[in-house]
Design brief:
The protein has 13 helices and ten strands. It is an alpha/beta fold. The strands form two sheets. Strands 3-2-1-4-5 form a five-stranded mixed sheet, sandwiched between helices. It has a five-stranded mixed sheet with strand order 8-7-6-9-10, sandwiched between helices.
Length: 285
């Protein structure tokens, strides 16, 4: 059996491909090596792997994950998986690599992630030629859920949200200044906490003030993570991620303003990854 994993910072989608071609899916928390160690990886798999499936029959794992950009961070994932899957071959690559493969296959283009975090790369059909700086939610991640959440929270804390929106925001999340600052500066994974507020933006995305806020974030994204590529306007750009999916109308407009056209937005890339990997597996037989 083959196991394919697409892991962002917030959640991970798993697909178990059985020998007869049947695909079984499940979901866990995100397993970014920035936030979890090998033991946590093991515990997550142990508690989530379907009990009616035989882990010993898994002979290959393809793991594409946020934060897996260096050998030491890849090792955290590999070590954790090997605690549960005792004898199998494990391939670990970045979520960006998996995104590009899922979106473009063997064709060139600019692949983009807009989820809890954000990232882009220039893909030549088989490898990443160049990537945008991966600076995380504090210094980068323009256009991401975390970036949108930060923008909303700053407007709220600075009393710049219209009064009706401010009141609805407080009531929906039961927040005030102290609650927000405690979650951002004292509790773990503030990026996930901030990204959670995108739900409010989605609910009110017909409000002109909200549209302006989201548009500003997306224009920052195109300016800092897309226009860095030479001749960027000549490439197709495709997206994965819930932020891109739920704000597709605003994103399309920002792309046009940035001299680009989006021809594909996928909320979850894991099933496209499964197709690519199965094609590759058949090609090596």
């Amino acid at each position: 059996m083959i196991l394919v994993v697409d892991s962002g910072s917030s959640k991970a989608d798993w697909r178990l491909i059985e020998d007869d071609g049947v695909v079984f899916g499940f979901q866990t928390i995100g397993l970014s090596p920035f936030f979890v160690d090998a033991e946590r990886v093991f515990q997550t798999v142990e508690s989530s792997f379907p009990g009616d499936k035989d882990a010993a029959s898994v002979d290959k794992i393809y793991f594409y994950g946020a934060g897996c950009s260096s050998d030491d961070r890849k090792k955290i994932i590999i070590d954790g998986l090997k605690m549960y899957f005792k004898s199998c071959t494990i391939f670990v690559e970045t979520d960006m690599y998996g995104t590009a493969k899922a979106l473009f296959g063997n064709d060139p283009g600019i692949a983009a992630i807009l989820g809890t975090g954000s990232n882009t790369c220039l893909w030549d059909g088989s490898r990443i030629v160049k990537g945008s700086p991966s600076l995380g939610y504090v210094l980068g991640d323009e256009g991401s859920g975390a970036h949108l959440g930060i923008s909303l929270v700053k407007l709220y804390l600075n009393h710049e949200l219209p009064p009706n929106l401010s009141k609805q925001f407080e009531e929906k999340y039961n927040v005030n200044r102290n609650v927000i600052l405690d979650n951002v500066y004292r509790k773990p994974q503030p990026n996930k906490y901030l990204a959670n507020f995108t739900g409010f933006l989605v609910e009110h995305k017909s409000n002109p003030f909200i549209i302006f806020t989201v548009t500003s974030c997306f224009l920052d994204f195109f300016g800092k993570q897309v226009k860095i590529y030479p001749s960027y306007a000549e490439y197709k750009i495709r997206f994965i991620g819930s932020v891109a999916y739920y704000f597709s109308d605003v994103l399309h407009e920002c792309a046009l303003a940035s001299e680009m056209s989006i021809d594909k937005i996928v909320q979850h890339p894991v099933d496209d990854l499964v197709k690519c990997i199965l094609e590759d597996e058949r090609g090596t037989e």
